[in-house]
Design a protein that fits this description.
Layout: E1 2-3, H1 14-20, H2 36-54, E2 62-67, H3 70-81, E3 86-90, H4 95-106, E4 110-114, H5 124-129, E5 135-139, H6 153-163, E6 168-172, E7 190-194, E8 205-210, H7 235-250, H8 252-269, E9 276-277, E10 287-291, H9 297-306, E11 309-310, H10 325-329, H11 334-338, E12 340-344, H12 351-371
Parallel strand pairs: 1-11, 3-4, 3-5, 5-6, 6-7
Antiparallel strand pairs: 2-8, 7-8, 9-10, 10-12
Length: about 375
């Protein structure tokens, strides 16, 4: 099986899992326990926390709260900051942010949604126009998980703060962390990340927080994570997250350059009479989204699976809906929306796999098109 749905989830790194296995065997202790074993694990938990922060931010300015996933991190950010006035998001937000913001709207907070450009990036000028003195939260996805468009969240955050210094700025960085080079600046208050998108395990995520930014817990209990996320920490998953991140950040720019080439190679091999491109040329090197207009993406997806190739049709978190909310917000017609396929790469993806994927995509699209004549 050629697996090219890495934006949905990645295969865990064997090396990271093996390194973390000691937390299932010898270091299985509860980090809140007062005896030596617990204290040792608590110390190493802090080391993992510091390491993960240090990959993208200044540890003197930022810390993080471990969560069960990127969705929980997004929820905690939105519900902590969006407590008054209005909240501003883009139409391209992941469902974890979008639906949380809709929940705030249902509680009486005004929701303002900025439009998207055709490639899935936000109209940043409109986003900033929506900010005023009553905006309590602005949230903008870093890398659009459905098109791969990259928003300049650092620049937008700085502009937001110039208009309203009290506004909390959050970004969902799940598709950016460990994949594209960046550093958080002090205008970004909260930043969500997820382990299973970079070769670690499902069930682990984190919310990076500027230390001066107030945060409210979603989960109450024994006061773990500085009383911001109660529940015994998933030390195995957290260690695996750290080790997988070490692997990704060690080769970050090298992988980005190589995968940009593979993304463009795939596009060059696809039949332009069958596919149109949705992803921007300058987007994430890990995502190429296309559409086989007038065909059904989910039918093509199943045909590809039967031929040994796994690709996505958009966000796996919204796969039960007939059309992608995000791609629709980009302004595409129903015919284009029907045929969306998202190919997403990993550092391990090879040229041979890309060539085979292109060949099979062309084959199944031609076959389905002929069948529908």
């Amino acid at each position: 099986m050629i697996y090219l749905d890495n934006a949905a989830t990645t295969q865990p790194s064997e090396r990271a899992v093996a390194r973390a296995a000691e937390y299932l065997k010898d270091k299985f202790y509860n980090p809140s326990a007062r005896y030596h074993g617990g204290e040792l694990v608590a110390k190493e938990l802090k080391e993992s926390r510091d390491a993960l922060v240090g990959f993208v931010a200044d540890r003197t300015e930022y810390d993080l709260v471990f969560t069960s996933c990127g969705t929980e991190a997004d929820n905690q950010a939105v519900f902590s900051a969006g407590k008054r006035g209005n909240v501003v998001i883009s139409a391209g937000e992941h469902a974890a942010v979008y639906n949380s913001a809709v929940a705030l709207k249902n509680r009486g907070i005004e929701l303002r949604i900025a439009l998207l450009r055709r490639d899935g990036s936000v109209d940043s000028e409109e986003f900033l126009r929506l900010i005023d003195e009553k905006t309590s939260l602005a949230s903008l996805v870093h890398v659009n998980n459905e098109t791969g468009a990259v928003n300049d969240v650092a620049a937008v955050a700085e502009a937001v703060k110039r208009k309203n210094p009290r506004c909390v700025f959050h970004s969902d960085g799940v598709q950016a962390f460990g994949k594209i080079p960046f550093r958080l600046n002090s205008a970004i208050d909260l930043y969500s990340v997820s382990a299973h998108k970079i070769g670690a395990l499902k069930g682990t995520g984190a919310l990076l927080r500027r230390k001066t930014c107030n945060l409210s817990p979603l989960v109450y209990g024994g006061g773990q994570e500085g009383a911001l996320r109660s529940g015994t920490e998933n030390t195995f998953g957290i260690a695996c997250f750290r080790y997988a991140a070490e692997e990704k950040f060690a080769c970050l720019e090298k992988n980005a350059v190589r995968l940009s080439g593979l993304r463009e190679r795939l596009w060059a091999l696809l039949d332009p009479a069958l596919f149109e491109r949705i992803s921007p040329n300058h987007g994430s090197p890990y995502i190429l989204t296309v559409s086989a207009a007038c065909l059904r993406g989910e039918v093509l997806q199943r045909m590809l699976w039967d031929r040994g190739v796994a690709v996505g049709t958009g966000s796996a978190c919204s796969s039960k809906k007939p059309h992608s909310r995000v791609i629709e917000a980009c302004g595409y017609s129903a015919k284009t929306l029907d045929g969306v396929l998202r190919v997403s790469f990993a550092a391990e993806t090879t040229e041979e796999e890309v060539a085979c994927c292109a060949r099979e995509m062309n084959f199944v699209a031609r076959k389905l098109k002929e069948k529908l004549k």
